[in-house]
TrEMBL record:
Lineage: superkingdom: Eukaryota
Protein name as annotated: IML29
A Pfam cross-reference name: Lectin_C
Record flagged with keyword Lipid metabolism: no
Length: 312
């Protein structure tokens, strides 16, 4: 009788899990969280950033259930490799915490043999091996990693097909847009849009230029903080390494994409480095410095990435 009752309670609990997240993550009932194994190695800083932009965090083995799931993912993919965890001492050497703020002293995972050794006093990030053991490693080397998101009930999926509330659908283009007011260089802006399931915005018509111009107008200079230009933002075109061969991030020329209206005197590339695409508040285009931070526009379709419910 007790066994039957437990089964009914478990079945009831499973059927009423309603959290949602990206379908490229897999839900673990035991850990009550979503996980994604990223096979393309990255340094610790890029791994942290990509997980964050996807709405997750760089995973750390903070519970036995999470450790089991991390090891299962590793052993199915790269059992012989270490992965980065979210445990780090990048703020203060030797003071290890997870990204969420859990101190290393509260994580009951053993060290690998002869670890930690802080070799050459540069090992400030913690890796996990397939045996479930930790080691300190340089943050700048590259390793696979796991992104993790705890289960959150009552997460709403927007009309843009995302749990990110900052994306909004514009009916004129049937596309979703997000304006990032935190400035980044072109490479980091590209990473952010990609991680969110979109790309740096590509203007395909006068109508779409108007959409971005109107969105930009909602953020006057006073809403930005920092020493950077507030009259322009990155969008998705660059010269792809050939001067004056300006193409979108999807490889089309601007004429092929459908919009090629530059501000007077642009593009000019007065100095080397003005090889990336931008838009003025007017909606006209400009070539800008790739390595100087600027706000930027992301664009995504309503159906990618797909969102799944945590149902079993």
């Amino acid at each position: 009788m007790k066994t039957s009752l437990k089964y009914i309670v478990l079945l009831f609990s499973i059927n009423f899990i309603e959290g949602s997240f990206r379908c490229d993550y897999k839900y673990s009932l035991k850990a009550q969280a979503w996980f994604k194994f990223v096979v393309v190695p990255a340094n610790w800083f890029d791994a942290r950033l990509r997980c964050s932009e996807e709405g997750a965090v760089l995973a750390s083995p903070t519970s036995p259930e999470i450790l089991v799931e991390m090891r299962n993912l590793m052993n199915r993919s790269y059992p012989e490799f270490e992965i980065f965890t979210g445990i780090h001492a990048t703020v203060s050497q030797g003071d290890y915490y997870t990204i969420e703020g859990t101190p290393l002293s509260k994580i009951a995972v053993p060290w690998s043999e002869n670890e930690p050794d802080n070799k050459d006093n540069v090992e400030s990030c913690i890796a996990l091996n397939g045996n479930g053991e930790l080691a300190d490693r340089p943050c700048e080397v590259t390793r696979p990693y796991i992104c993790y998101r705890p289960e959150a009930s009552h997460v709403e999926v927007s009309e843009c097909g995302t749990v990110d509330p900052e994306y909004h659908l514009d009916k004129r283009t049937n596309k979703c847009y997000k304006f990032h007011t935190m400035p980044r260089n072109f490479s980091r802006a590209y990473l952010a849009c990609s991680a969110e399931g979109g790309h740096l915005a590509i203007i395909n018509s006068d109508v779409e230029a108007t959409v971005l111009r109107e969105l930009f107008a909602k953020y006057p200079d006073a809403k930005f903080f920092g020493n950077f230009r507030k009259d322009l933002a990155f969008i998705g075109f660059q010269d792809w390494g050939e001067k004056w061969d300006l193409r979108t991030v999807h490889g089309q020329t601007l004429l092929e994409a459908g919009y090629n209206k530059f501000a007077p005197g642009e593009p000019n590339d007065w100095t080397p480095g003005e090889a990336c695409g931008g838009i003025f508040r007017s909606g006209l285009l400009i070539d800008v410095w790739c390595n100087k931070p600027a706000p930027f526009f992301c664009e995504k379709s309503t159906g990618f990435p797909n969102v799944c419910k945590a149902l079993f």
